[in-house]
Amino acid sequence: MKKIPLLLLGCGGVGRQLLQHIVSCRSLHAQQGIKLRVIGVCDSKSLVAASDVSVSELDDRFLLEACRIKSAGSSLSTLRSFGECQIYGHSELPQRVIEIASLLGKATGLALVDCSATMDTIDLLTRAIDLGCCIVLANKKPLTSLMEHYDKLVSQPRHIRHESTVGAGLPVIASLNRILSSGDPIRCIIGSLSGTLGYVMSELEDGKPLSEIVKAAKSLGYTEPDPRDDLGGMDVARKALILARLLGSRIVMDSIKVESLYPEEMSPSKMSIDEFMSTGLPLLDKYINDRVQKASLHGNVLRYVCVLEGSRCEVGIQELPKNSALGRLKGSDNVLEIYSRCYSQQPLVIQGAGAGNDTTAAGVLADILDIQDLFN
Ligand SMILES: NC(=O)c1ccc[n+]([C@@H]2O[C@H](COP(=O)([O-])OP(=O)(O)OC[C@H]3O[C@@H](n4cnc5c(N)ncnc54)[C@H](OP(=O)(O)O)[C@@H]3O)[C@@H](O)[C@H]2O)c1
Ligand SMILES: *[C@@H]1O[C@H](CO)[C@@H](O)[C@H](O)[C@H]1NC(C)=O
C-alpha cells in the first residue's frame, strides 16, 4: 500500500469536509493501493499531531471526533483526552510543523494542505517547499501576496496544486495547465467567478431592483454575512490574479482594476450592514437598472466578470451577448470562457458550482491524490 502523509492547516467548513471525504473514501483508495495518512491537523490556536509522525497517524475515529469538536466550537486541545496524540499551542505551532516537514518532506513528499483563510501560512508553506514537501491550497491568500512569495511557492510546479482556489472543485487550473503545456496560446479568459455576483447579475435581467435581489440573496445564505464582501469584487480579483499569474503575468493585486458595485461612501467603515441594506443599496437601483436596459437594447446582458487578455486584467461589469455561455448563466454557477488557438471561434467553457464546502474539499482531495505519483 502506498502511503501519502498529510498535514492539514485549517479545520473550518472546508477542512472538516476534507477529513470527512478522506474517511469515506477509505475503501476506494484502498482499491487503488493508496492510503492517506493524516498525521496532523491545526487550527488558529493549536496543532494536534500523531504521537510518532513517522510511523503513526490520527485514526478515523479521531479525525471524526476532531470534526465534531470543531463544529461544536470547541478547541482542538480538548482531543487530548480522546486518544493518543501530541498537542501544541499557537506559539510552538510553526516550529513544530517545520520539524515535521524536515522529517517527512524529502523522504515522503508530505503534503501540507492549506484550508485556512489567512496570509499567516505563507511562511510555513514557502519553508515547506524548501524541505521537499508538497503543498495543496484551497486558500487563495498565499498565491495573491507578493510576487516573491508566489515565485517560491510555484518554484517546483510538480509540488503544488491549488485547483480549489478558483472555481472550487471545477477543473479550471488543471484545464488551463493542459492547454498551456501543449503550447496552445491562451488569448483570453472571461469568467464569472462569484456565485453571489452570478446570481445577482442574472436576476437583474428580469427588471428586479438590485437592492431586493441582494436582500433575497442574503436571506438565502448566498452572500457573506456582510454582502459588501461579495459586491466589492475583491474575492473575484484574487481569483483573477491567480489566473493571470498562471498565464505568466507578473502582477500584484494593486495593478488589477476592480469595479465595486457600491461606492466608497457606503464602505463598511462608513455604514453598518443594516444601514447599507436598508438605505445604501436602494440608492444604487436606478443606475444599475439603466445599465441593464441599455445593454438589452444591443441584445446584451450584464455580467460581473474577470477579463484576462494580453496584459489586461480587469474585474467588473461587462456587457456580453445574451446567447453566449456567460450570457445564458442563471443562478449561482461559475462560468469560464477560455479562448485560445484551438478554441478560437467557440470558447472552451467550464461551468458548475463554484463554491461550497463539499465541492471545494473534493477538489482538494483530488489534488492530494494527483501529486502522489511523485513519491513511492
Ligand atoms: N467554502 C467555499 O465554498 C470555498 C470555496 C473555494 C475556496 N475556499 C477557501 O477555502 C479556505 C477555507 O474556507 P472555510 O470556509 O473552510 O474557512 P473557515 O471556515 O473560516 O476556516 C478557516 C480555518 O482556518 C483556521 N486557521 C486560521 N488561521 C490559521 C493558521 N494561522 N494556521 C492554521 N489554521 C488557521 C481557522 O482556525 P479556527 O477554527 O481556530 O478559527 C479555521 O479552522 C478559505 O481560504 C476559502 O477562501 C472556500
Ligand atoms: C460550510 O461549512 C460551514 C461550517 O461548518 C457552514 O457554516 C456553512 O453553512 C457550510 N456551507 C455550505 C455551503 O454548506
Task: Give an overview of the whole structure.
With about 375 residues, the chain is α/β, with parallel strands linked by helices. The mean pLDDT is about 95. It has helices at about 15-25, 25-30, 60-70, 95-110, 120-130, 145-155, 170-180, 195-205, 210-220, 230, 235-245, 275-280, 285-295, 325-330, 355-370, and strands at about 1-10, 35-40, 45-50, 85-90, 110-115, 135, 160, 185-190, 255-260, 300-310, 310-320, 335-340, 350-355. The strands form 2 sheets. The protein has a 7-stranded mixed β-sheet, with helices on both faces. The protein is globular. Bound molecules: NADP nicotinamide-adenine-dinucleotide phosphate and 2-acetamido-2-deoxy-beta-D-glucopyranose. NADP nicotinamide-adenine-dinucleotide phosphate (NAP) binds near residues 42, 44, 118, 168 and 360.
Briefly characterize the structure.
With 376 residues, the chain is α/β, with parallel strands linked by helices.
Largest sheet descriptor: 7 strands, mixed
Order of H and E elements: EHHEEHEHEHEHEHEHHHHEHHEEHEEH
User: Could you tell me which ligands this complex binds, including any ions or cofactors?
Assistant: NADP nicotinamide-adenine-dinucleotide phosphate, 2-acetamido-2-deoxy-beta-D-glucopyranose
Provide the helix percentage. Answer: 25-40%
CATH architecture of the largest domain: 3-Layer(aba) Sandwich
CATH superfamily of the largest domain: NAD(P)-binding Rossmann-like Domain
pLDDT < 50 stretches: none
Instruction: Please state roughly what percent of the residues sit in beta strands, choosing from under 5%, 5-15%, 15-25%, 25-35%, 35-45% or over 45%.
Output: 15-25%
Number of strands: 13
Question: What is the averaged pLDDT score?
Answer: 96
Quick one: CATH class of the largest domain? Alpha Beta
CATH topology of the largest domain: Rossmann fold
Oligomer: single chain
Radius of gyration: 22 Å
List the total number of helices.
15
Separation of the first and last Cα atoms: 10 Å
